[in-house]
């Protein structure tokens, strides 16, 4: 079985030095790799490189058996539809002047040349699965709560049936009760659709809940740890000791 994602010898450098170096890993369908580290360590930048939002890096990202840097713009756009990113601030992915229904259906209408109402009708089982009502999608983003917007974002992302999701601190802005609901929902959708996921967080407990494997990014170094190693590492992390 081929891997959904292969990352080989990935380097990203800014003016002051390496953000990360020699990042190498593979990811299979249905598997979640956690990327853990302190704020500012480069986790989000790594996620953006993997998904193709950052292209100025050294190394190779291979998705679906294709090296993303060797694809034409047209072919990259086709693959890009199968790679989606959930952001820490989901409201930033919605145009405040557009109703949520328009933002959510737009990607499918664009990629598959379908009518908006037809797309919305097809999405109703997914809308129900995330715990929202269809009428809520006729609202504007500022009329929904943070948890509702994050759920609407998941409808938007899963509508394209992605093979890979990069989740960048997707619940860190939500209160604890809503956070648990959204995380459980993400796990359920991932299992149902066999989606590979790179899950970025600085919360050790969330890492343990969501991830099959956990990598730590610290001072540019990327290391995949066994659970026992990560438990020892995160205990020191929580106590604020030098890492």
Task: Report what the structure shows.
The protein has 243 residues and is an alpha/beta fold. It has a single domain, classed as Rossmann fold (3-Layer(aba) Sandwich), CATH 3.40.50.300. The chain is 39% helix and 25% strand. It contains eight helices and ten strands. It has helices at 43-51, 73-80, 100-112, 116-129, 146-158, 176-193, 204-210, 227-239; strands at 5-14, 17-27, 32-36, 58-63, 66-67, 83-86, 164-168, 196-201, 213-218, 221-225. A six-stranded mixed beta sheet has the order 6-7-8-3-9-10, with helices on both faces. A four-stranded antiparallel beta sheet has the order 2-1-4-5, covered by helices on one side. A hairpin with a 2-residue loop joins strand 9 (213-218) and strand 10 (221-225). The longest helix has 18 residues, at 176-193. It is globular, with a radius of gyration of 18 Å. The N and C termini lie far apart (37 Å). Residues 239-243 have low confidence and may be disordered. Belongs to the ABC transporter superfamily. Residues 5-243 form the ABC transporter domain.
Give a quick summary of the entry.
The protein has 243 residues and is of the alpha/beta class. The chain has helices spanning 43-51, 73-80, 100-112, 116-129, 146-158, 176-193, 204-210, 227-239, and strands spanning 5-14, 17-27, 32-36, 58-63, 66-67, 83-86, 164-168, 196-201, 213-218, 221-225. Strands 6-7-8-3-9-10 form a 6-stranded mixed beta sheet, with helices on both faces. Strands 2-1-4-5 form a 4-stranded antiparallel beta sheet, covered by helices on one side.
């Amino acid at each position: 079985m081929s891997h959904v994602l292969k990352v080989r010898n990935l380097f990203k450098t800014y003016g002051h030095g390496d953000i990360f170096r020699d990042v190498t890993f593979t990811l299979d369908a249905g598997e979640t790799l956690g990327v853990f580290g302190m704020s500012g360590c480069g986790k989000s930048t790594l996620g953006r490189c993997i998904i193709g939002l950052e292209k100025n890096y050294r190394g190779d990202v291979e998705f679906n058996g294709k090296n993303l840097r060797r694809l034409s713009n047209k072919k990259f756009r086709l693959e890009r539809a199968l790679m989606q990113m959930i952001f820490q601030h989901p409201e930033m992915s919605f145009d405040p002047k557009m109703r949520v229904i328009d933002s959510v259906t737009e990607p499918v209408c664009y990629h598959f040349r379908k009518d908006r109402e037809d797309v919305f009708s097809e999405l109703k089982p997914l809308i129900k699965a995330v715990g929202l009502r269809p009428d809520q999608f006729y609202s504007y983003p500022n009329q929904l709560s943070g948890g509702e917007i994050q759920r609407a974002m998941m409808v938007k992302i899963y509508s394209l049936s992605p093979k890979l999701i990069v989740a960048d601190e997707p619940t860190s802005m939500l209160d604890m009760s809503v956070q648990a609901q959204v995380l459980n929902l993400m796990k359920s959708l991932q299992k149902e659709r066999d989606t590979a996921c790179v899950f970025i967080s600085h919360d050790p407990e969330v890492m343990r809940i969501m991830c099959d494997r956990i990598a730590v990014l610290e001072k540019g170094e990327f290391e995949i740890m066994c659970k026992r190693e990560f438990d020892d590492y995160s205990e020191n992390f929580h106590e604020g000791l030098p890492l």
